[in-house]
Amino acid sequence: MSRGARPIQPPRRETGRGAERGFSFVELTIVLLVIGLMLGATAIGGDLARTASYNVFFSRFVVAWSEAYKSYKTATGGVPGHTAPGQIVNGNSGGTTARCTSDLRADMVGAAIALPPGRGLDKETLALFQGPDGRQHQADICFLHVTDWTANPGGAVLAVNVMRISGLSADLAARLDVAIDTYADAANGDFRRGDTTAYKAASATAWPQAFSDEELQTINTVTAFYRMP
């Protein structure tokens, strides 16, 4: 080694704030923002899928069966389960029970009325929808004669025929109510709750919350009555 030359020194290890620097506040904020956007997109995607499922259920099942009922009346002069001039659903059997499944299907086929697709052959009175829990649920329809339908709170008591839709999520029932009546009220209008006395018109009544136990994703289910003409 020549005089004056310095020996090679090992590289210095930085200490203090510059050593092993963690994420800055800005970087953490960006990461959290990205995660939030991803979760939001997932939630929005789920809402859109459920809304699409509800729209299909309404148009291809509820509306389709309402139209089938009207067509049956036009073609026969009667209503399901009651020959003309009878106007009581299942009136040939006393009018106290619902007209459902194979009997209802036979009525429509016998009158050459096209059946809604439902869940397929011999399952036209059943349909699936996506619930707020993200799972598929099944609803079914029958027609029923109701003798104590109240026109409005404190108003006249009427005897009417209704489409009974069982197995609805409360969330779907509220949305169907808005589509039919323009506002969600389980005790008024043409679409009402039928598993309680809410179809006897009362003061404004809300549909139940979507979940009876949100943590367990247990949905509330209801039966609805849709008044037929």
Give a description of the structure.
The chain is of the alpha+beta class and 229 residues long. It has one domain (25-227). Helix content is 32%, strand content 21%. It has 3 helices and 7 strands, in the order H-H-E-E-E-H-E-E-E-E. A 5-stranded antiparallel sheet has the order 1-2-3-7-4, covered by helices on one side. A two-stranded antiparallel ribbon has the order 5-6. 29% of the residues are buried. Residues 32-45 have low confidence and may be disordered.
In terms of topology, how is this protein built?
Layout lengths: L24 H52 L24 H10 L15 E5 L5 E15 L6 E13 H12 L9 E3 L17 E3 L4 E2 L1 E7 L2
Antiparallel strand pairs: 1-2, 2-3, 3-7, 4-7, 5-6
Notable characteristics:
five-stranded antiparallel sheet; alpha+beta; 229 residues
Oligomer: single chain
Task: Report how far apart the termini are.
Answer: 110 Å
Principal-axis shape equals globular
Percent helix, as a range, is: 25-40%
